[in-house]
Amino acid sequence: xxxxRNTKGVIGNFSYDDLRPHxxxxxxxxxxxxxxxxxxxxxxxxxxATVATAGSVFTGASAALAATPKRGGKLIAAGDQHxxxxxxxxxxxxxxxxxxxxxxxxxxxxxxxxxLSWEPDVASEVIPNADATTWTFKIRKDIEFHNGKTLDAxxxxxxxxxxxxxxxxxxxxxxxxxxxxxxxxxxxxxxxHLDSPNADLPMxxxxxxxxxLQNGVDKFDTAIGTGPxxxxxxxxxxxxxxxxxxxxxxxxxxxxxxxHYGIGDSNSRLSAFLNGDVDMMVNVPPKAIPKVESxxxxxxxxxxxxxxxxxxxxxxxxxxxxxxxxxxxxxxxxRKRIVKGDLKGMGSLGNDQPIGAAYFDHSKDLEQRPQDLExxxxxxxxxxxxxxxxxxxxxxxxxxxxxxxxxxxxxxxxIGMNLRVKKVTTDGYWGAVWMQGSxxxxxxxxxxxxxxxxxxxxxxxxxxxxxxxxxxxxxxxTLKDVxxxxxxxxxxxxxxxxxxxxxxxGGSITPAHLNYTDGAASHVKGLTYCPLNNFGxxxxxxxxxxxxx
Length: 549
What we know:
Elements: H1 21-32, H2 37-46, H3 51-66, E1 74-79, H4 96-105, E2 110-112, E3 118-120, E4 123-128, E5 134-139, H5 153-161, E6 179-186, E7 189-194, H6 201-205, E8 229-235, E9 239-244, E10 257-262, H7 266-274, E11 280-281, H8 289-293, E12 298-303, E13 308-313, H9 323-332, H10 335-342, E14 347-349, H11 373-383, E15 390-394, H12 401-413, E16 419-423, H13 429-432, E17 440-445, H14 451-459, H15 473-481, H16 488-505, E18 508-514, E19 516-521, E20 524-525, H17 534-537, E21 545-546
Parallel strand pairs: 1-10, 1-11, 15-16
Antiparallel strand pairs: 2-3, 4-5, 5-7, 6-7, 8-9, 9-10, 11-19, 12-19, 13-17, 13-18, 14-18, 20-21
Helix pairs in contact: 1-3, 2-3, 9-11
């Protein structure tokens, strides 16, 4: 007869979660073999458990069994954009659809968790020196690439070197620009030497661009990675299909196939989801949330985040480099209406800089910019723009992206500003419009694990993704110096100064931060909740499974 005890070794009132691991395993095995509720409760009560405890433990064990991943079946995931620049090259990824593919096929040195802490992935150990200027990465010895090669230090070195130097094409190169030397210690250990302290380096290496490649790979019609799926089909702008990689060191994917493609129009994407043509969709329109919640077999998958909407004001061209015009637009926009009306409360107020309350280093001391049409008119008159048309290019790259422009257009009309919203398709937007020279266009940014990483990517002068083309030596220096600051008060002030600098002098009209609000069929299990991208931070592919498989 089995004796069930809680984790303190005491029989009495406790739940399934209090059992030791081997006791949980034994109980689940008994239920798998046909033990029913009465039999399990009888065993436990004979061993001294109360009726309440016995019933609770059986219920917990049954729930745990139901939550045990099953293998088989296919899932179809719908993103919100795709195009000819879809890529499997980690250094070039730009859009959410790229990030999801990365997690299907690749691994990184470290993995970011739901709470934005990190844990080793390809690395087995990560060891910094005292001032975070040297980092040692010990590499696991049991990792196999999709083509059968064993991963070693040369693969990791090749991966990192693609991000370094002035000629690197990496979109993430600014995050590792402080690496000035990579030293191979042995076949499975490397050391990174930095020219300045960076306590956030592991976090940076856990972000989207740093998937580990096989040494020498420079063609990306397929992905030779180490991830839980391998490529069955990849057609840019059409679709991607992955099938399980049986020898994945962390376990093969649970699904027989996972298919991923973009549906740019939100209404079409929603219809496909509600009709059962796709199992998952990104960016459920806020107004459609009640409809999804009331549809049998369809659920909302939401994650609170520091993601944000913005209107980019290109600082290298006119009229978007007119400081008074920017200020007039910032003072016109009705942020509260965007959050409450357009986003249906699934977000929070933005303040013309990227670091919202979800970040540890968010400055609560930075005054919220209000709507003030009187001040807006003063700055508009001072700008000298007059009746000249001001055009904003808008695409539905995120919920509220077009609506923020229409909101600004309505309010700007009240002060005499002639603002036009030019709507374009999301397909190919990031290659054809974004950072292609237009004075004003919409953007949206996923949250990053730290404020420094976010501001480095979007505002550092050297960043490939400095979309506003705003450059400030003072800002760059503070951004670099704060990485090595351990004094809490000094660090807080420096991060306040950085956020205030963007708020006052940068080229962003940022009205709102928004949650990730996606949809998943009720049979889709293994959801993740990392707040860095759609579909649970794009961390979900290794864990997704079908309960009806």
